[in-house]
Amino acid sequence: MASRSELGLERVKQKLEKCFESGDFYHTHQMYRTIYFRFKRQEKYAECKDIMFEGAERLLSKGELNSGADLAKLYLEVLSKGSIQADSEIMKKLAKLHSMMKPSSPERVDFTGECLQYSTVLGDLSDKKAFGHPNMHRLLALNYWAETNFRDAKYHFTRSLDGTSCALMLIEYHLSKGYKSEVDLFIAQTVLQYLCLNNQRTATVAFYVYTRWHPNVDGPPFVLPLLNFIWFLLLAVETRANLAIFTVLCERYKSFLARDPMYNVYLDKIGQLFFGKAVAPSERHPAGGLLGNMISQLMTELDEEVGLGVYSEDVD
């Protein structure tokens, strides 16, 4: 026999359905909140989470943005208070609710931060210093990309492990918003940011996908010096090259790295992470070994064949 509490909950659910079917979304919202507080008092978070997700999704789908966002927040509270693991399915549900919210609304901004906080605390993060699970960042990035909000998409992609999608987004971003002369800047900054976050693998994937599929890029080796620098840098990181090689690279491409003052900031961090210390580009050391010889030879060939000085930012 059902308890009085269970019978009362069933009556609330029946009333909720009638309100929703009749288009009375105000009282639908209130019924969902009643259910939330009943389960909360009993600490039945596992039973409550699916109902809160259902309510948020239904109201958002009807254009009830404030009420839907409120239930989405309660859904997150249930997940957090119940210490429910941030697995891939739950993160997909959070991303779905995120995609249904009005892009510029304060509710969505708050929800984004709360999703990342939840995935940080209850996700299977290996990097405990990170803010937000890489998969949560990836799903948010895909939402922003679909909205052609390339700036926010890039921010979240660089904190994900999806270098392929990041590169394809950057190609679309450059072709639709950038100047022809910026084709190398779009990927260079992203690769350096990935490396600063100690994400070598994703940096490499993003670089090779971008340079393979961008219609205005050929190589390697590349006509554009900055792309050659990034290529050599990734090789140096992958082969655990010594500090001397890194120093020579920075010195050799110093004039092209001056295009963005942030590059030296990134390279200082990359020097610490992968080459043992921060190094100023002006500090010269002999570069030896197989990689050093290969880089030296390629640099000479590039000087002879395409010239490091032929590229101008003023080209349209």
From TrEMBL:
Domain of life, per lineage: Eukaryota
The entry's keywords: Cytoplasm, Transport
Major subcellular location class: cytoplasm
One Pfam family named in its UniProt record: GET4
GO aspect biological process, one term: protein insertion into ER membrane
Compartments in which it is found: Cytoplasm, Cytosol
One Gene Ontology cellular component annotation held by this UniProt entry: BAT3 complex
Family: Belongs to the GET4 family.
Protein name: Golgi to ER traffic protein 4 homolog
UniProt organism field: Galendromus occidentalis
